[in-house]
Design a protein that fits this description.
single chain, 205 residues, alpha+beta, five-stranded antiparallel sheet, 2 helices, 14 strands, rod-shaped
């Protein structure tokens, strides 16, 4: 019975001796470097900024943390250099391994795309054309494309940038509703469709 008690006491003493070392092991954990720009993190000799940098950690690198301080610094294991512990700013450590960070290539300031500029020019030209419009008593014009086998485009607006809504073959008759500087507003008597045709390819009947 006495031997059993002694054995239990010895086991308890051994367990008590193990507890401090287990506590130390549990108090250390792994964190990973995460910087906003994907750069390195300075490792410092003491928990303050200044001329005390003793190394650097790469983005995503694992570090063994000993403790965090209320001042915003973290004490880590640091075998490199003169000592075995060092300090980094706590805000650059995360509990998970971050994905590789890629920095987009800076682009020059956008001063307005060419597409926007071209659209503005077309709109300005079209508005200028509309200002020249005058209503007339309807009369008939005949399409005269540049080639006998060609056609004249009927567009929804008085500009070559406007979408074509129909084609008029050689000799097609259209009714003029209004005259513009370079265009006619016309109606196709066969379909009732209204659009614009270039005056360069029309002849009055």
């Amino acid at each position: 019975m006495t031997k059993r008690i002694v054995s239990l006491l010895l086991a308890a003493m051994m367990l008590a001796m193990l507890i401090p070392s287990l506590a130390v092991a549990q108090n250390e954990w792994t964190m990973y470097v995460y910087t906003d720009n994907g750069g390195t993190l300075n490792v410092r000799r003491d928990p303050s900024t200044g001329n005390n940098v003793i190394g650097a950690l790469k983005y995503g690198e694992a570090v063994s943390v000993r403790m965090t301080l209320a001042s915003g610094w973290t004490c880590i294991d640091w075998a490199a250099g003169d000592g075995f512990v060092a300090y980094v700013q706590s805000r650059f450590l995360v509990p998970y391994k971050p994905s590789p960070k890629t920095n987009p290539t800076p682009k020059p300031a956008d001063k307005g795309s060419s597409a926007t500029t071209d659209a503005a020019k077309v709109l300005s030209s079209m508005n200028a054309e509309f200002k020249t419009a005058k209503k007339v008593s309807p009369y008939t014009v005949v399409s005269r494309p540049s080639r006998a086998s060609g056609w004249v485009n009927l567009r929804w607006a008085p500009t070559t940038e406007a979408e074509r809504i129909a084609t008029c073959p050689q000799g097609k008759e259209l009714t003029v509703l209004a005259e513009l500087k370079n265009w006619y507003q016309v109606q196709d008597p066969a379909t009732g469709m209204i659009g614009f045709v270039s005056r360069n390819y029309m002849t009055r009947k």
